[in-house]
Every structure is written in C-alpha cells, then in structure tokens.
Amino acid sequence: MSKVAWLFVFWVGVLAAMPPTDAARDLQTSAAPGPSLQLIVLEVDGCIYCDVFRRRLLAAYQSSKQGKRAPIRFVNINDPALGDLGLTQPVGIVPTFIMLENNQEIGRIPGLMGHQDFFRAIDYMLIGH
Fold this sequence. Notes:
Layout: H1 3-16, H2 22-29, E1 37-43, H3 48-56, H4 58-63, H5 65-69, E2 72-76, E3 96-101, E4 104-110, H6 115-126
Parallel strand pairs: 1-2
Antiparallel strand pairs: 1-3, 3-4
C-alpha cells in the first residue's frame, strides 16, 4: 500500500472513531416522514472534505432546482440509525452522497467532486424521478 493510501485509510479510521455531534442530531430530528426524494450526505465530524462541501457547494445545492426536488440531510456515519436508511452498500469514504427515493437508494456519489461534476451526477440520479 502506498504511503498516500495508507495515510488516507488512517485518517478515515481516526475520523470514524470520533463521537458524533451535529450530523447525528440531523438524523434524529428528521424522523418525521419527509419528501419522497432526499439527498443524504454521510459525513463524520472533523472531515475536511465534508467541511469543504458545506462551505462551497451546500448553499448552491439548497437553492438549486435539484435541491428543491431532493432536500439534503446530513447523517453521521457513526449513527446507529444509519441502518434504517435502506443503503445498498457499505460506506467507504466520506462524504458520500446518497439519493433516496421512499427510503430506497437510487444513486450514490462517493467522495467530493467539483461543482459541475457534482450537479451533473445529481441530475443523472434525478432522471426519471
């Protein structure tokens, strides 16, 4: 394993071991039935890429037509209620963006990408929904 890959695995493990805070509260407060389409952001406290998403893309997504069709919700990957989300695969990287329709996964974006690629991927997941 290369040094870069080892460092990435190390930091993901360190971040995953941190106790949940705000993201866990998002899941708990969203227990009421929500919209049929949702974009779930799986994150962990202290994740620099999760923070970059919140600073650079979150406002644009929330105000976009995609954000109106599929409102966003943040969930900490350490939250035990994660198993109730209907995920089709385990999560190996944060942030991971999962599109749910009626609590069933219809698409996934592992990792952070640039603005145009992110919205292109979201559009692809929303086709036909």
